[in-house]
Structure formats: structure tokens, C-alpha cells
Sequence to fold (742 residues):
Amino acid sequence: MSMTTAINVPIISGPRAYGRRYWVFAVPAAAVVLVVILFPWLFTLYMSVHDWKVTGDTPYVGLANYAKMLSDERFLYAVVRTLYFTAASVVAPLILGVWAAVCFASKFRLRGLARTLFVLPMMATPVAISLVWTMMFHPQLGVLNYLLTSVGLPPSTWVYDASTVIPTLVMVETWQWTPLVMLIVLGGIASLPTDPYEAAILDGASAWQMFRHITLPLVWPFIMVAAVIRLIDALKTFDTIYVITLGGPGTASETINILLYQTAFAYYDLGYGSAMVVVFFVLILLISLLLLRIRQREDLR
Amino acid sequence: MIRRRQMLATTAAATLAMPAIVERANAQSTFDWKQFKGQSIEVNYQLSPRGDVAKANLKAFEELTGMKVGFEQIPEQQQRPKVAMEMATGHPSFDVVNVGMHVQKRLIERAKWMEDLRPFLADKSLTAPDYDFDDFSKPSMAVATAPDGKLNVIPLNQDLFIVFWNKELFAQKGLQAPPKTLDEMMTMAHQLTDASKGIYGFVGRGLKNANMTFWDDVLLKWDQETVTPDGKTLLTDTPAAIEAATWYQKIMRECAPPGVIGFNWNECQTTFMQGRAAIWWDGIGFSAPLLDPQKSKVVGKVGFAPDPAGKVRNCATFIDGIGIPATAKNKKQAWLFVQWVTGKTMMNEQLRSGSGTPARLSCYAQQDVLKGSAFPPEWFETTEVSLKMARSGLPVIVPVTEFRDTIGAAVTNLIAGADPATELKKATAVFQPVLDKSNEG
Fold:
């Protein structure tokens, strides 16, 4: 009944009444947000102030879980590792992605095919490609060390050593997500006007000068968009690390995500795990806001 | 009036008693595998040869009972959290579940997640007369039973740590027999290592968490467990623990292939099957693929031997079981599956196919099982010797996974060159409060 009136009434009472009745259409979306985003969020907050184990009671402990984090060496290392991994997996795809975009913007034979091949890694399922990479990383039987040794280079330990594990994981991340950056930046380059370039060529500018002083400043907003997307994705990375190393060797590649998963679902300490999620969420929020702020300021300029 | 009322009451009482009478009649009738024909159950296994052998024979169960089985196998690192979460919600998606008792014994006891199986065993309409429950080994029953006598699971497998050795690589260095002591193993492993050819004397688990089963087995040679019998005090920084860790560090650093720090059993298995390692020390349950020509390059060259001796002679055993969640929907139907899979036929098949070493003792006495197997007599001798000297590996505490991660990370760090005493003392100090807290409530 209410639906019929909601639809019928505005037609009779004129255009202004529409606005007041539109909320009906937002209800399904709002309900979904409430159930699958807001409620879990509030419940996570609630759990984070309780000693929530899967067995027995769940007493209220106030901010004890948060205080524990400050003295938990494993957690603090995980934060540092998360930042290191994220920074590397944002910067590397950005540089390579911009470079690839500039290459793919120029005209050459079989460009369509080359572009398609280039974006393929992005289409693959992270878990599936992680399993393939894991096999390739095997120090004795993996194809990567076979290739290295067959060209006379020493074999690497890849993910089987604390010192090489994060760079190797960043390599996988870069391999998979450089195409995304490339696509965004390529779109930016395609939308650029051609006259600045014509003027530059008349003035005798080199290709590097044109890139540095025309392309880069003009596509900068696109690069920033790619950076924000990449940043949020890299911070959230779970599947690749979980499948390839499970945070190891030891805890050498254990990021906050992996640690909080282990805490909540392997140690069954849901309270502490929830507190980590809250801190992690705030961290993502702060970094994203910071980047958006930088972008806005540049837009104003 | 009174008569009529009495009569009514009698009729009512009789009507009420009817189902009970019918039930008793059923109880007295003989056991029938087909009693739940047409119904279905969900079964959840850890990914392992035990799951594989059950899955391969599911059709036999479906024909026997006329029931349908939904079968799911998940790698143990994902299966344990999934099962725990579903149990905690009280609505598990499965009626039968495979539990690694060496990890979750105390947890399931404390949380009361499992159905007591004793009533099913006692009910003649539900349990076949030839089930022979007394056939299970004592250590396995001790693990399956809670301190209050509740039977949480039926033992499915009693995995034993043994030594796999490559006879061809041994012969190349003039060695004939497998190592009998820890010292002998260390010397042989050095002798057998030839890094320039990519051949290593030894391979074993280095990966955090996974390495704890292996290191614990080494520690047992010093006649020491990881926790005091009351489950309250860690023994992971004692002089014996440090000596065991030093032994582990030496063999893993000097005789194992590079990257062993990240090896779980499957990487070790692959390395051994490719003929790249001369000795592999791990669970007997991983034997079958070594004899499969499709997967292994060492078929016909594999030797099996019991654990080497240290101060004492023993080997670690890890028991897993199969049971029914207390909140399962189809418990009686589930019991038929549990009974079938732990029955003599399936346990014999598990042993014959090399998928595991059952806790049922009668399996080992059957000559036809032994003869019908692809495994050499040496394998059965190793099993027999090991079963007799088996000691429970991993501590019986609630936070086993966190124990394995924390102490395991320290042991992993040793392969990278850290000092055993420092690492173990630090990890023990970190984990002791966690253990204390788990004992509080």
C-alpha cells in the first residue's frame, strides 16, 4: 500500500513533492549498507573491547586490547612491514605503469595485441596466480632459478629467505597491477590536447623534455587516481601473501592483514583481532585522506 | 464416571507410551545399514591421504546405506579455522568432521563442540555387532577420550614420524643402512651432501608452525616434552630444548637445501621424490606418493626406518579422529558414516593403500592386507616398531596453533642463523603468558 501511494502521490501533487518521496528508492541500498557494512563495523568495535574467544565467556576489557598492541612486538613489526610492502607496491607499478602507458600511447604495429597481452595479468585470479608463482619460486625445482642459472646468474632464494621475501612479493604485486596503472594513465594521455606537443616540436624539444614538461604535469591527476586505488589495494593485500608465504619465513612477510587473520581465525582471539582491524581501518583512512588532500590542493593550483 | 475417567487415562498413557514401545522394538531388532536410505549427510575432511581414501570409497558407503554423502576436503590450515568458526556459531554445515586431535583436543573438550559417541556405540540398532570397538590402540583412545570419559571422536589415524632414506644415494657414498642414532644421522647427512650437484644429505620441515612437529620429535629424543604434564609450564627453553634446537639448526643449515626455511612437508616430499635429498624425516602418512611412478623418481630406492635414537628411543605420534558436532542436524545418519569409515574394512584399506596407519590393531595382524600392499615388508616393520615406542607429539593445551606459530617462528629463525638459546628464551617468554591466560578460563 505505501508503495502505491509513494508512487502515485507525487504525480498528483507536482514536481516539488518528488524530492520528499525519493528516499523510498534509497531504502534498499541503505538497508544493504546497514546490514553488510554498518552492522559488522559496529559489532567489530564492540568485540574489540571484549576478551572475545570462541570458547567461554566474553568479558568486557575496555581498551586492554588496544593497549596490548603497543607492547606487542609482532604487531609493531607487522605495521612496519605493511608500510614497507605498500610503499614498494605503489611506487613500482606507478613508475612502470606510466612508462608502459607512454609506450602504448605511441603508434606501432600490433599495438592492440601488445596492449591485450600486457593487461592479461590483471585479469587473473590472485589465488591462482599465487599458486603458480609459488611453484616457480621453489629454490631447487622452480623454473625461475632454472632460468637464472641457465644464463649464468646465481640462483635466488625468492620467498624462501627473510631478506628476499618482501621484494619478491612486491614483484608479484607489480607484475599483476602495473597494467591497471597503465590503463588509467593511458586514458589520461589519450585525452590530452595535441597542440602543446606541436608547439614543443617546433621549438625543438626532445622527447624527454616533452614528457617531463607536458605529459607528466597534464596526466598528473590521473596518476594520483591510480596511486590512490593502488594504495588502498596494496594495503589490503592478503591473498597473494597468504597463499605464497603465509607470512613467513618465520614472520618475515607478516603484514597486519595476515597477523589479524591469524589472531582471529587461527588463535581464535577475536577480540584482539577486531582491535587490530579497527587500527588498520583508521590507518587506511588516514593515508587515503592524506593522498586525496594532496590531490585537491594540486587541483586548486 | 470414575471408570470412564480411568479408562481415558489408561488409553492416554498407552498412546503416549506407544513411541517408546516402538523404539524399544527397534532397538531389539538387528542392525540395519539401510535404515536411513534416501537421506543425505555432509562430511568435512582435512586434505590428506585419509580424506582421499574415504573419498575414493564413498560409492561403497552409498551403496551400503542408500544414503547420499556431500564430501568436502580442505587444507588443514584453512579447515581448522573454518570448523572452529562454524562450531562457534552453532550451525555447522557438516554432520561429520575430521579433527586433528594433536591440535584441537583441548579446544573441542573445553568448548564442548562434539557429540558424545558412547550412546551410539551402546545402541544395538545403530552399531553393527562386528564393529569391535576394543580394537583401537590405547594411546589413540586416550586422545579421543576427554578427562570426564566423554568420547569426542573415533581415532582415524595414528601418524608416526619415521625416516625415509634414498638407498641409491646412500650406496653411492658406501653407506648401507639407515642411521640408528642422532649422531649417526648428523654424520651421514654431512657425508651425503654434495651441494655442487644439487644433492643434499637431509631435508625436513623448516616452515614456521609446520616445523614444530619435527622439532618436537627431535626434542623427544632428549626424553622431554614441550610442556609440563599439567599443561601449565613451557619446557621450550630448558637445556634439553636448546640442545635439540642446536642439533636441528646444524643439520638444517649444513645439510639441507637452500630455501628449506620455507619448506612444509610437501616441499620436502617433492625434494625427496626428485632424488635431491638422501634423508627425509617426517610422517609415515606421506609414504604413498613416494612409490607412485607418476609422481616419484625414487620408486624402488626408498628405504623406511624408525626414528633414530637419542638419549632415549621413541617417536612422535599425531592422532586425528572423526566425530559428530553436538549441533549437527543428522547425528544418527552421521554415526553410520563414522562407523563405516573407522570400521575394519576401511581401516584395512587405509593401511593397504599406504594412506595412513590406523589406530585399529587388528589391521596389522592381517597377512592378506600386508601381502596386497604395494609397500615393502620394511615399511610394515617400521610401523610396528614405531607404534610400540610412540609418544604423543605437540602439547595438549588449548592454544596449540599459537604455540606452533610462536615457538615455530623462533625455530625457523635458527635456520637463518639465530642463536638457539636467545631465540627459545625469547619465544618462551612471549608464549608463557598466552598459555597462562588459556588455563585461566
